[in-house]
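User: Could you go from structure to sequence for me? I need the amino acid at each position, not a summary. Structure tokens:
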């Protein structure tokens, strides 16, 4: 944890959210499209792993066209975990971080985070490198499927095992920024100072 993140987070540990990438609630229209060996064998990869529904226009979202980002976002919200991050209230630490960066500082922070977390061909502990909370960029990564290379392959059609190109990173970064703009419309352009918490004297 960096000094900057520690200052924002304070001394209280984050409580993990009770959500998994494989969660679904098919009865309410929220599915899990992560492929299984069985689905691949049956040529049904891209279907919901639980109810077999085929909702996503994978050919269209895999084009990675920013002009079609609204459609991509709509498709993503059919998946339980994406839907959660499109609607969940951000925790206090994430909101504080966003205000500290300001709208003007978030693009560089997003770009740096994507390079470090998913940019390489074999990221460390892939699938576990993006925390569930504590930073608005984490919310953006889960919401727009740039949280790990498996999700990137699934939703953006970029294979695992090869480093992401500048163009691919730029595309993922723009999706994350658009998500943050939509979720945090009142965020100031300029950074705001961090208010450090004073430790209570015993």
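Assistant: Here is the amino acid at each position, in order:
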């Amino acid at each position: 944890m960096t000094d900057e993140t520690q200052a924002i987070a304070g001394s209280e540990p984050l409580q993990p959210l009770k959500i998994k990438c494989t969660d679904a609630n098919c009865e309410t229209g929220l599915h899990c499209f992560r492929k299984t060996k069985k689905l691949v064998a049956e040529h049904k990869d891209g279907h919901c792993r639980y109810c077999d529904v085929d909702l996503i226009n994978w050919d269209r979202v895999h084009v990675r066209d920013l002009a079609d980002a609204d459609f991509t976002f709509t498709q993503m919200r059919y998946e339980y975990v994406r839907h959660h991050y499109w609607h969940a209230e951000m925790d206090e630490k994430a909101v504080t971080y966003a205000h500290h960066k300001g709208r003007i500082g978030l693009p560089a922070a997003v770009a740096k985070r994507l390079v470090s977390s998913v940019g390489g061909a074999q990221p460390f502990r892939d699938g576990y490198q993006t925390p569930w909370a504590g930073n608005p960029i984490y919310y953006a990564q889960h919401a727009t499927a740039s949280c790990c290379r498996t999700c990137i392959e699934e939703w953006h059609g970029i294979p695992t095992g090869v480093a992401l190109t500048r163009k691919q990173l730029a595309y993922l970064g723009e999706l994350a920024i658009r998500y943050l703009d939509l979720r945090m419309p009142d965020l100031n352009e300029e950074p705001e100072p961090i208010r450090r918490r004073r430790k209570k004297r015993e």
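One structural detail worth keeping in mind: Residues 1-16 have pLDDT under 50 and may be disordered.
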